[in-house]
């Protein structure tokens, strides 16, 4: 059966002399395609670097190509033998292809060759030499990640590797192994720089492909035979791929055999009887038998139920951990673009240039407040999503807002982008899981998350990923700086390359004639702020742009919305006409509305927000009856803040309206109508938490029935009656009308404390328990710049805690069952459970040591409402914290206090300034206190919440507290709380009694004693105290 060597050479090239790359059928199937009773196995061979689809497998002396002359004899079935040819030459090659390109070509060639139904049902076995195994493994991963190749992947039954480096060894790491293979293949010369870079020493790609393949091969129970060389390669005098590197170490699915020969001769055989071939023949026969047996099944033999369940749980966990906020609801806060508007942006040369550019990942759309940036971003999400149905695009988005703790957090933003990407492209989940486990990545770290996003977008060679970040200027300042740094670093880096530049968005490639440099493209919208401008405009410049007038001249394109006066004016006009038509249809006089329309168009000045607010005012005026003069007065209002003043001046400046605005300002997220209805009905039971002259905090006697009795229904009507068009209700949630409304309300950071007190003295000095934070301020100002954020947070904290104590009292009265009043007010419980600890941390630098017991008692299992709020708190905790079980109540309290970071760095005593906090609750895991080992064990599994916002966000700092928990410079050591030191405490004697002033420290926080085994009791208000009536 031998053929002469020269007989092959004539078929190796096309008539013109060019290499004939692609899939070549060496041995056709001896059975017709219609013969389904005798199934055929497809065998595909892949050569290595500088190899050839014929010569790699052919003995030069005898001319025996064992794929043709020997292999069909060994296969326990009819077989079709094919050999894949690709441009693997490293010398004198003009190719810019890489491993992923070759893998993609292999898959496409197989699909083209397997045309009939019978052919598509054939099992497939691969035979790979050296780094041809890398091409196979990459192809297997691509097939697993793309639905286009799902059917083909299911038919891959086995693979035989000859001298393929799967990993580094104890003798030679990845760097040395890669260098050896390159040297053996290219004689240390190379001109294909892209392929060489894939395989250069230290290449992360080698490691990623091999590790990911191991995981998926085990999952699929892919049958593997790994052959390793036993002889040194002559001119190198070393084993190129030693045994340790050539073996995957998967004993469940892998067979390992040594083959006599060096790295080049290991895959060449003379005849079927050769001793060195017999072990290979036996394993090939086993592979073919197994393939035939399962040939007509839908996929590889699955992993065991237990293994598969574990792997599925791990992969589901990755996606679940990234699902941290309702990004779809955040987008829905914005109005839908009126038909005919926003079209200008997708037709803009800069947008088209960015979309088609291979060198520009970032498009920054800037615009002044109120010009419709968020509506425009939502329009782009819709338009690009429509485009993704016909082009290869992943579209992810996040809408940032300063009034929501999650929406202002860049960590949640990137997590949402990742969640959308993995949801759309489930094949990338295993890649994400691999890197999470390999590097033990922290999913709360901005840089880790951003790197993961870039990596996954690059790995998805079948699609371009576009991420839209709206309102990046509304992110919390400190973390916004980190996010801008991550984006800037991404654009600066030389790593704008992806695994495959040949398959990303074919339409873009056709338009530009070039290959895109990255799988990730970004659209950012924001105000034109200097911080963002500086971060983006220091990008490296693109190089060869002379031939393209629309080409981007930087790694970033800026589309200045503030310069697009004609386009935005046209959109504003369209919006005005649409809104006026709505008002006319609702019954308002057409002639009057047409006059209003003309004046609105003339005065709109390209500001959608102004138009929207003015229309709201006009609607109110017309409905109540108004003269043309009054309407003209409204239309003549030019400044946004003046409009806000008009919106609120028609409302009584009541404590309840100010209370609602304070709640909206302080809330960690938008409250629902049901939640805000309950919150408005809860009167604070203590004086202002920030009032230094107040008494220690105490639980009041407010019942759930009292709260229910004071709820005003319908809630929507009540909210609108308090603030009218100054607030918006979207999907049953209450928001301020715009971010500028928040700026209108809050005190300017430059305003001095004395000036604040002059303008609104009642904000900090009231002594009335109910009106402490909502009393009407001095009439110098009404609403503008009259709210201090720290006071709003203190108010909402007191409302939350008052609610919990009221619930506790209700549960004590009913014996633990929920009353009708508790059920009707329960919507507020979810917010309270997740947010009261956040509000505590936001103002804790202004609290006092005497206050701790009031808050810490909520964390003790003896607190009657403990189970109610902690059960609500647990389910959405996606950060992998372990909650304590089978430990003492005191240890459970330790866990929650530490988990929620309810410590004070300094103690403040009422009226006495700052003093050492000696009865602090905190107990670190490394404490030497042996009296409470259970608490220490629990604390080892806990860590403080990391979602705090800056304590002095409103620019306040009274100067008597340290707001930086990480700095200890120049501190008085007596003022520092040492978490591992506790003051010994003794039990009171009978003579001392409970009222002795010397026991003040004992009473101040009974749950913080170093000996947690002291008995506690719950009083009628739900508060915990030491039970001195019990005998010790």
Automatic annotation (TrEMBL):
Residues 1-36, 940-1006 are annotated as: Disordered. Residues 945-973 have a biased composition (Acidic residues). InterPro entries: AB_hydrolase_fold, DUF676_lipase-like, NPHP3-like_N, P-loop_NTPase. Residues 1-10, 994-1006 have a biased composition (Polar residues). Residues 44-172 form the DUF676 domain. Keywords: Repeat. Pfam families: DUF676 (PF05057), NPHP3_N (PF24883). It comes from the Eukaryota. This is Ankyrin repeat protein. Residues 340-494 form the Nephrocystin 3-like N-terminal domain. Belongs to the putative lipase ROG1 family.
């Amino acid at each position: 059966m031998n053929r002469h060597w020269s007989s092959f050479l004539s078929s190796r090239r096309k008539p013109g002399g060019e290499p004939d790359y692609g899939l070549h059928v060496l041995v056709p199937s001896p059975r017709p395609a219609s013969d389904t009773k005798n199934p055929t196995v497809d065998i595909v061979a892949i050569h290595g670097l500088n190899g050839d689809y014929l010569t790699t497998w052919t003995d030069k002396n005898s001319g025996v190509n064992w794929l043709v002359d020997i292999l069909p004899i060994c296969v326990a079935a009819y077989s079709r033998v094919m050999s894949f040819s690709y441009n693997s030459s490293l010398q004198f090659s003009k190719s810019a292809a890489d491993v992923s390109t070759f893998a993609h070509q292999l898959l496409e060639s197989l699909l083209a060759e397997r045309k009939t139904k019978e052919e598509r049902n054939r099992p497939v076995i691969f035979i790979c030499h050296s780094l041809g195994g890398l091409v196979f493994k990459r192809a297997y991963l691509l097939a697993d990640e793309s639905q286009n190749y799902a059917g083909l992947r299911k038919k891959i039954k086995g693979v035989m590797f000859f001298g393929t480096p799967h990993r580094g060894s104890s003798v030679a790491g990845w760097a040395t192994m890669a260098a050896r293979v390159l040297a053996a293949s290219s004689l240390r010369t190379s001109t294909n720089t892209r392929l060489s870079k894939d395989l250069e020493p230290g290449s992360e790609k080698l490691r990623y492909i091999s590790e990911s393949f191991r995981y998926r091969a085990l999952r699929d129970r892919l049958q593997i035979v790994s052959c390793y060389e036993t002889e040194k390669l002559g001119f190198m005098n070393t084993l190129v791929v030693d045994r340790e590197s050539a073996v995957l170490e998967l004993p469940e699915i892998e067979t390992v055999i040594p083959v006599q020969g060096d790295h080049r001769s290991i895959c060449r055989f003379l005849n079927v009887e050769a001793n060195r071939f017999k072990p290979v023949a036996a394993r090939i026969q086993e592979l073919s038998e197994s393939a035939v047996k399962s040939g007509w099944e839908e996929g590889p033999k699955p992993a065991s139920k237990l293994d598969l369940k574990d792997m599925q749980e791990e992969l589901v966990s990755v996606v679940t951990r990234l699902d941290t906020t309702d990004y779809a609801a955040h987008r829905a806060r914005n109005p839908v673009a009126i038909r005919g508007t926003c079209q200008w942006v997708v037709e803009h040369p800069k947008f088209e240039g960015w979309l088609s550019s291979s060198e520009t990942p970032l498009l920054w759309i800037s615009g002044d407040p109120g010009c419709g940036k968020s509506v425009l971003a939502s329009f782009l999400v819709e338009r690009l999503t429509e485009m993704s149905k016909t082009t290869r695009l992943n579209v992810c988005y996040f809408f940032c807002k300063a009034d929501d703790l999650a929406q202002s957090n860049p960590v949640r933003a990137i997590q949402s982008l990742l969640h959308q990407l993995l949801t759309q492209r489930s094949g990338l989940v295993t890649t994400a899981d691999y890197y999470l486990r390999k590097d033990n990545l922290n999913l709360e770290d901005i840089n880790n998350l951003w790197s993961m996003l870039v990596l996954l977008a690059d790995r998805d060679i079948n699609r371009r990923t576009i991420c839209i970040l709206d309102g990046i200027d509304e992110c919390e300042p400190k973390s916004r700086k980190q996010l801008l740094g991550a984006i800037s670093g991404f654009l600066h880096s030389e790593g704008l390359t992806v695994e495959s530049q040949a398959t990303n968005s074919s339409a873009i490639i056709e338009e530009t004639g070039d290959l895109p440099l990255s799988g990730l493209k970004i659209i950012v919208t924001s105000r034109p702020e200097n911080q963002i401008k500086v971060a983006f405009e220091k990008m490296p410049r693109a190089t060869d742009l002379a031939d393209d007038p629309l080409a981007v001249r930087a790694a970033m394109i800026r589309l200045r919305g503030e310069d697009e006066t004609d386009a935005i004016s046209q959109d504003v006009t369209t919006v005005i006409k649409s809104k006026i038509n709505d008002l006319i249809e609702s019954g308002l006089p057409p002639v009057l509305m047409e006059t209003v329309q003309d004046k609105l168009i003339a005065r709109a000045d390209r500001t959608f927000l102004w138009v929207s607010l003015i229309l709201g005012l006009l609607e109110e005026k017309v409905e109540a009856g108004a003269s043309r003069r009054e309407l003209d007065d409204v239309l003549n209002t030019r400044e946004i803040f003046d409009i806000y003043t008009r919106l609120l001046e028609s409302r009584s400046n009541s404590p309840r309206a100010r209370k609602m605005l304070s709640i909206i300002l302080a809330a960690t997220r938008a409250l629902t109508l049901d939640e805000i209805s309950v919150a408005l009905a809860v009167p604070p039971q203590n004086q202002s938490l920030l009032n230094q002259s107040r008494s220690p905090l105490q639980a009041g006697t407010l019942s759930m029935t009292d709260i229910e009795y004071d709820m005003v229904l319908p809630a929507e009507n009540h909210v609108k009656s308090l603030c009218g068009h100054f607030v918006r209700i979207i999907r049953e949630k209450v928001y301020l009308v715009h971010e500028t409304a928040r700026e209108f309300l809050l005190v300017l950071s430059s305003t001095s404390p004395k000036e604040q007190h002059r303008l609104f003295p009642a904000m900090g000095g009231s002594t009335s328990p109910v009106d402490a934070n909502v009393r009407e301020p001095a009439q110098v100002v009404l609403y503008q710049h009259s709210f201090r954020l720290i006071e709003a947070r203190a108010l909402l904290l007191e409302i939350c805690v008052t609610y919990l104590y009221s619930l506790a009292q209700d549960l004590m009265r009913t014996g633990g069952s929920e009353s009708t009043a508790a059920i009707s007010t329960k919507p507020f419980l979810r917010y309270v459970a997740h947010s009261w600890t956040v509000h505590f941390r936001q103002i804790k630098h202004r609290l006092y040591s005497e206050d701790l017991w009031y808050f810490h008692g909520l964390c003790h299992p003896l607190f009657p409402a403990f189970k109610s709020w902690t059960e609500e708190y647990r389910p959405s905790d996606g950060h992998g914290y372990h909650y304590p079980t089978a430990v003492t109540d005191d240890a459970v309290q330790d866990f929650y206090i530490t988990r929620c970071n309810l410590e004070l760095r300094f103690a403040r005593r009422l009226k006495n300034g700052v003093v050492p906090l000696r009865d602090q609750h905190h107990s670190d895991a490394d404490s030497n206190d042996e009296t409470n080992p259970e608490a220490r064990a629990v604390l080892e599994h806990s860590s403080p919440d990391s979602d705090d916002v800056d304590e002095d966000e409103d620019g306040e700092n009274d100067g008597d507290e340290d707001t930086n928990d990480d700095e200890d410079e120049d501190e008085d050591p007596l003022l520092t709380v040492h978490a591992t030191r506790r003051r010994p405490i003794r039990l009171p004697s009978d003579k001392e009694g409970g009222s002795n002033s010397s026991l003040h420290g004992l009473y101040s926080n009974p749950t913080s004693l170093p000996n947690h085994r002291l008995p506690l009791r719950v009083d009628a208000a739900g508060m915990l105290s030491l039970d001195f009536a019990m005998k010790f």
